[in-house]
Amino acid sequence: MYQKIDIKRFLDDSGKITQLSSKNKFRIATLSYLAGKFEVDRDYTEKEVNDICDEWHTFGDYFIMRRELVDNGLLCRSIDGSRYWKPKKD
């Protein structure tokens, strides 16, 4: 059975991410929350991804947010890094 993970402690009052947990289950849940800000069937430039990441966290490191989204399969990236997209769920 799927259990929803509560990430409220990692968000501020406006819903922005304040930190990434070192515990994997919270980290993935928080990244999934951020991935929810992206649309399926839409291509994004690196700048657009950076802007969305920057808008939804408070610690000023959109690079790590973007990398974590890609490394965890929550966003896909073309080999040259010119295009990003949110994968479709099965």
TrEMBL record:
Pfam families (alphabetical): DUF2087
Domain of life: Bacteria
Annotated DUF2087 domain residues: 17-85
UniProt name for this protein: DUF2087 domain-containing protein
Organism of this sequence: Anaerovirgula multivorans
